[in-house]
Give the backbone structure.
Amino acid sequence: MSTNDTAGNPNVRQTAAELATGDRTDTLLATDDLRKDFGGFTATDEIDFSVAEGELRCLIGPNGAGKSTLLNLVTGSYSPTAGSVYYNGHDITELAPHKRVQRGISMKFQVPSVYSDLTVRENARLPIQRFADGDERRRRVDEAIDSAGLAGYEDVDASQLSHGQQQQLEIGMAAALEPELLLLDEPVAGLDVAERETIAERIVRLNEERDIAFVVIEHDTDFVASIAEKVTVLHNGEIFREGTVEEIESDPEVQRIYLGGEK
Ligand SMILES: Nc1ncnc2c1ncn2[C@@H]1O[C@H](COP(=O)(O)OP(=O)(O)OP(=O)(O)O)[C@@H](O)[C@H]1O
């Protein structure tokens, strides 16, 4: 895992301001006072969240805390009610989702979306077919299958894969877009311990070998501890805590919100 300097900077607002003025930092993503309302309900509020280049961050929090909403604001699936999103020094708040993908932001959603009647290779080809052809496409398909840890399964129908292997395939497909930032929404939900370990290995390898920064939503603390250096805790739509895995695990206030003692 890479280390970083700015991720520990509590003054995210200043980081966003630096990005707005074009000053180079190693900050990849920064949100400034980001808010999303659904009707009269505020799902996220005052979110100043930053991720450094090559960082591996986990995002945790009780059900309904606003984790998926935050990632959807980063991908552009949701437009914010207020606030800004900066990426690589540019304000992307108004940028269309597909243009964010072109800039290097890729997301794997919670529900697996591989095509079960296509083979592993055919699935792996899907995300990149518009961006590459010929040898370049073949190289990236092979890379996706390797990233997924599914070498040897190229001609197997996705329907024959286990749920864990389907999740691996999806991570490989997201990585095939050669993102700088990969957002994963509960990639190990419903998987057993061995499958979780495989996914953790895949994520760490992509982070270390391809320098892809990750934001991973996950509830399982063992999984979080196995991949992340730093954790952001959301609660009631706001950032509740940020710290190392050890700091977050030992924080009684974090334990309290998870146990449902406070609303
Ligand atoms: N499209 C939407 N329309 C209305 N309300 C929404 C929408 N998306 C999310 N919400 C609400 O916003 C709040 C935050 O939801 P979100 O899915 O971001 O939480 P989460 O932390 O990802 O939860 P979980 O861990 O259960 O997936 C919830 O109360 C949810 O019902």
About this structure: DSSP finds ten helices and eleven strands in the chain.
